[in-house]
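Materials and Methods. Structural model of SAM-dependent methyltransferase. The 285-residue sequence of SAM-dependent methyltransferase from Nocardioides cavernae was retrieved and submitted for structure prediction as follows.
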Amino acid sequence: MTNTQTNTQAHTQAHTDPTPLQQLKAAQHLIWNNGDYGKIAWLTVPLAAHLLEDTGVRPGTSVLDVATGTGHVAIEAARMFCDVTGIDYVESLVDVARRRAAAEALPIAFEVADAEELPFADASFDAVVSAIGVMFTADHDRAAAELVRVCRHGGRIGVASWTAEGFIGRLLKTVTAHVPPPAVALPPTRWGNEEVVRELLGAGVRDVTSSTHVVTQRFVSAEAFADFMLTWYGPTYTAAQKLDVQGRAAFRDDLVALGRASDRATDGSFAADWEYRVVTATRAG
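The predicted structure was written out as tokens:
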């Protein structure tokens, strides 16, 4: 092989090999295609109303719901007579969202698109929101910049995210204790911290505020909770598949222990409060 051929091959490989962030993004896309997020998403339906209220969405507002999942925020906004668009990069979830909207004859424009590369012009929407969505992007800085870019000047941005201290934050720490994430991965619960989100959104916003809320989830037992998450929730399902039989058993034991430590039910069932933070801002300019 000549030097020219060697240099050409090296140049081609440099342009085709995925970066660590691209590899992380592909892995995350697979995670959200695993399990069945549709069976998880309904647990977070109550977040939609809090997010839209705190963001200041009102009838007639043009709203973009980023990482819409099965569409509960978009649907809630459409019920308020808003002009709504929802995007997600998992096509199967978008299909569910479309069917849900069609069942109520709600005119929502759902698209398969990437939160880190929104296919909309600058300043396209009055309000840009995301519930338990952008927190799971690979490139947090880029996703935040896109939220700001497509919001009109004077428009509102709102994100709802699990907190690190809350129940799902602790669940995600349990996942990483058993299956460590790639070195390039940032904790998604960073988005549950107002100061971090303020920094991510940057100088393009003003009036950053936040509030914490809880949504109470109920299961037959802590064991039923653990099995439900291992069967349907992408992060726990995917992590379990990477473990051997003993590892999966230990993982399940830790999920059951997490559930029992957080259980506030007094009737023999299981109930736990899942804490999340809504951070809102106004686009400057």
